[in-house]
Structures are given as C-alpha cells and as structure tokens.
Amino acid sequence: MPEPLIYKAVSSWFVRVTEYRDRMVELNQEITWVPENVKDGQFGKWVQNARDWSVSRNRYWGSPIPVWRSDDPEYPRVDVYGSLAELERDFGRLPVNADGETDLHRPFIDELTRPNPDDPTGRSTMKRIEDVFDVWFDSGSMPFAQVHYPFENEEWFDSHSPADFIVEYIGQTRGWFYVMHALSTPLFDRPAFSNVISHGIVLGSDGQKMSKSLRNYPNVNEVFDRDGADAMRWFLMSSSVIRGGNLIVTEEGIRESVRQFLLPLWSTYYFFTLYSKGYEATWRTDSADVLDRYLLARTRQLVDDVAADLEALDSPLATAKLRDFADVLTNWYVRRSRDRFWEGSDRDAFDTLYTVLETVTRVAAPLAPLVTEEVWQGLTGGRSVHLTDWPDAQAFPADDALVDAMDRVRDIASSGLALRKATGNRVRLPLASITVVSADPAGLVPFQGILRDELNVKDVTFAELTEESLGDYGVTRKLTVNARAAGPRIGKQVQQVIPASKKGDWTAAGDNVIVGGIELLPGEFSLELTVADDTSAIAFVGDGGFVLLDTATTPELEAEGLARDVIRAVQQARKTADLDVSDRIRLALGVDPVAEAAVETHRDLIMSETLTTHLEVDLATEAAADAVAVGSGSAVTVQVQRHE
C-alpha cells in the first residue's frame, strides 16, 4: 500500500533576490533574446516578479552549503567559508575521503568541527549546517565555477563574460536562464549571457512531448543511415522551434529538408564534376555572360543576407535564403546554362559555377556541416571548409537591377510553365506565343530569348500594363468581396458592397478599391483576371501584370514536340546504357508513320542533341513491347550503341 506523504514547513536559507531585482530587470535589457518577445514577456515578467530564492535542500547528496553554526544558541555564531584556504586556516586541515583526496562532499565535509570562539565556556562547537545547495545554484554558478574563478583564470573570465551565446528550451526562463542571471547580477553587475535562443518544445509524431517510453519519434540511427545527420540538423535549424514554437518531428519533414537544400547542392556539385573532367577551374567573378553575372550578384546577396540572419540568431531565415538560392542555382542557372557546359569550352561557365559552389559551401557549412565538407574538399582539395574564412561579399559584383529583372523573368517563366501544366500542354511541345503584360516591359526585353527557350514558344511579346491593354487582350478583372475579412470593419455595409461588386460597380484606388462608394482594404477583396479567348490561358505575375499563353497548336508544332519527346527518350536510353555524357552513339529508331514524319523533319536536331553520328529510322506497323510513348498517341523504340 502506498504511504501517505507528509508536508511540513521547514527552515530554509535564502538569497535576497528582491534587494537587487530592479537591477536584474535593467540588465535584462542588454540581452538579445530569440524570440524577441521573451525578453519582456515570459522572462521579463518572471524577473519583475522575482521572489527571494530558497537555495537550501534537506538532502544528503549535493554541494554542501559552506556555513558553520554554533550548536549552542546561548553563544550564537555563524561562519561562512569561501575557500579551501579559509577552511584549512580555521580547522587545521581539509576534508579528505578514504583515498586521502580532498573531498568537499558529505560526509567528509561534516567531519570538520571546532570550538566556538565566541563561547568562553569552551563547551559549544561550530558544526556545518546539514543542508546542501539547490542544484540550480550549481547550474547558475557554472559560468565562473567551471574555470575555478576567482582562484584561477580571473583575467580570462573577465574577458569572456558575459557568454556570447547560449541556448535552451523556453521552460528555462524559470530555470537555467534565470538562475545564471540571478547570480551574475549581484556578483558581477552584468548579465551572464549576451545572446540567447529560447527554443520551443520538440514533439513526437503524435503531437505529444518526445518520450523514450512512448517511442513517438523516428529511430535516430535509421534517420542518420537513410537521410544523413545533416538532414536532421537542417530540419531542426529551419523550423519554428528556433523561434520558440513547438515542432512535431516526422520522417517526411526530415526528408523534406533533403529535398530543400542538400539534394540540390549535391546534384549541382555532381553536375559540375561530371562535365568539368580535365578542366582546372579558377575562382573568379568577372564573367560578362548575363546568367553568370546574375548568379554572381545573387551570391553576393546570399553572403550578406545569411551573415545578417546568423548574426541575428535566425537560422530559419538563413536556411530559407539558402533554400531559395539552391532553387535558383539548379532550376534556373544550371538548366539555362546546360548547353554551355555540354560544349565543354565555356571557361566563364565552369569558373562561375566553381566559384559559386565553393562560396555556397562556406555559407552553408554551419547549417549542413557534413555535406558541405564533402563538397568543399571535392572542389578544392582543402583540409576542411570549417577552417576557412566566411566569404567576402565584396568580392562579388553588385547588380541589383539585373537581379530584380531576372527574378521577374523567373516569375514570368514560372507562371507560363504553370499555365502549360494547367492546360495540358507538355513542356517539350512548342507553342506559338506568349504575351507578357507588365508595368515595366522595357526591362524585360533583353531577356526575350531566355523566356522563349524556357517556355518553348516561338514568340514572346511584351506590352505595358494599362486599363486599355486589358481591353486590347480581351482581359476582364472580376472583384470578389471577402465578407469575413471586411465585415468586422465595415459592419452592415458589407451587404452593400457585395451586390455592387457583382455589378462591376468598383474602381481601383491604389492598393485599395472603391466598391459601391465604400473603400475596401487589401485582404478584404480579391481580383481575378479572365480572358474571353478560349485559345489563351492567363496567369498573374508578381508586378501586377499578367501573361497570356497561346495554347493553339499546329501540325508543325506538334511534329517538333514529338521530335523533342524522341530526344528525351534517347537521352534516357543513353543513361540506361551507362554511356558517358560525351560518348557519340549510333541510333536506331522504330517509329509509326506520324513519328516518322516528325523524326525525318527534325533529323538534324535529334542527332545534334543526342550526339548521334549515325541515325537509322525504321517504319513499324505495330508498336513494340518496349516502345516509348511520344507526342499524342505515337510511340518509338530506341536502340543506342556507343560509336567506337
């Protein structure tokens, strides 16, 4: 049967925190907290309402409180000791254990007794009180106790306190964070730490706090073996847990961190090593190529931005910058520059990619230390990326105008590709045209060729965004009122603006709109563009403009699209045959009549894109079992052989 607990009041030793509480509040303002609201919130309010701290515990094990007291209240005396020298002075020896070693713990410390100097009778004795320190007193003493201050390393401690950075979970605002502050304030009149991350709670996949007994988290060894330790690190460093939020750990979340940055970085490194065999790359930033200049200017921004984020202890923002850069690197620069690497003679392309990769590995090293080490050593042959300096952003060209323009081009390309997907037009099928209506079309004209290639269209047209241009392209804007958002602000007037919006009774007013005479703010309405021409598709772009994609096809466009599908099938066959990217091949295609016409029309294109020296085309009446689908309803068989 369980025994009942007995609660009773006992005497305790206190630190008079209330005497210096106001100074603790003042010194807290010198600390940088992440998240920032903890300073005056959870921690600040706790400090403002601090009570005197009971530091004694009625236990056997622990750090003995160095207080000796007379055992006779008729002759009261209390001695407090602060060093071994003081103990030896008064007791004639130090406490030693069975091995003859100095040992300040019980029972050895309690063996030190002496007559009470204030007792003329000589009968009372000075004995140590039985209490030991609260373990949080030990934790709060860590900054100076770990270096045996003030008996040793006094100069070192004075130059290393406050600590630059500490981190613990948010509950320590009432624990470790607090007790360090509560001791540093009266002892040194300064904070114990300058910067602190107060992270949230890590939860298991079931939403409960991680627990060994519940086993509600992925097996760590399996995660390391399958995804790597960097994946787990990136998952944590990129999450809201760093900002004090809670985090649910799932295997899918960890794998997503691989897809966000680690895989793009490694894929780009592999691409570089694959195509740069025999080429000694040089670190340089002077290429005149527009894509190189864009990537180099983007790298300059990355170095500055990530440095600022890490200085602010904001690893989620830093990882977001690296993730976005990885997308630019792989899905834009490498893909748009592939022909330059394919040809193998463009020194600017190789040197630029080498320079950017080497720099990015240094920037990302604190967040993905293992993968970046492998990449950096493979690129440079150096000892370790973690022994190098942070990159110098000034070594890269600054070109904000180019970056802004190219980012707009990427936005337009993304919208155009989304339109292709939404309308069922595969990327390898050429389309006639795309029209870009923008507030600043002149800045996009130099990139017309890039958009034409990226979107696989024959023509790119630019036009200025005006009310007239909407009508010119048959575009109308439909306004929808968000009653849930607008209602709390305009009340019953929401019943007036809804029918007015449906009648088209509205006008733009900057970022706002006037509907039926009532002004609506952003978020209280939405605008949707529609186009009357059913052969075109429309999508917004970031500057308030839109793109119109002509989705009508012709037999000529269909034939070229089929030929490009054949090229894709041949490239896959090369990969399956484990051919080197530079190997020339002999190619045999088995085609149906539709595919035959397309292949013959675009024979030169197919041969040049696939490094084919000899192409044989055979007409087949029936599709073979290993035929690959191409175009709309056609199929081809592909046989490749290395040309010796």
Structure description:
This protein has 644 residues and is of the alpha+beta class. It is 42% helix and 18% strand. It has 22 helices and 26 strands. The strands form 9 sheets. Strands 6-5-8-7 form a 4-stranded antiparallel β-sheet, with no helix packed on it. Helix 11 (290-311) runs parallel beside helix 13 (347-364). The longest helix has 29 residues, at 315-343. The radius of gyration is 36 Å and the shape is elongated. It starts with 13 loop residues before the first strand and ends with a strand.
Describe the structure using short key phrases.
about 650 residues; alpha+beta; 4-stranded antiparallel sheet; 4-stranded mixed sheet; 26 strands; about 40% helix
Question: What are the SSEs and their pairings?
Answer:
Elements: E1 14-15, H1 21-28, E2 32-34, H2 37-40, H3 42-48, E3 53-54, E4 56-57, E5 67-70, E6 78-80, H4 84-91, E7 114-115, E8 125-128, E9 132-133, H5 135-145, H6 154-160, E10 166-169, H7 176-188, E11 195-199, E12 202-203, H8 220-226, H9 229-237, E13 247-248, H10 251-275, H11 290-311, H12 315-343, H13 347-364, H14 369-380, H15 400-422, E14 431-438, H16 448-455, E15 457-464, H17 467-472, E16 475-481, H18 483-490, H19 494-503, E17 506-509, E18 512-515, E19 518-520, E20 525-531, E21 536-540, E22 546-550, H20 555-576, E23 585-591, H21 593-601, H22 603-609, E24 612-619, E25 628-630, E26 634-642
Parallel strand pairs: 2-11, 10-11, 12-13, 14-15, 23-24
Antiparallel strand pairs: 1-3, 4-9, 5-6, 5-8, 7-8, 14-22, 16-20, 17-18, 18-19, 21-22, 23-26, 25-26
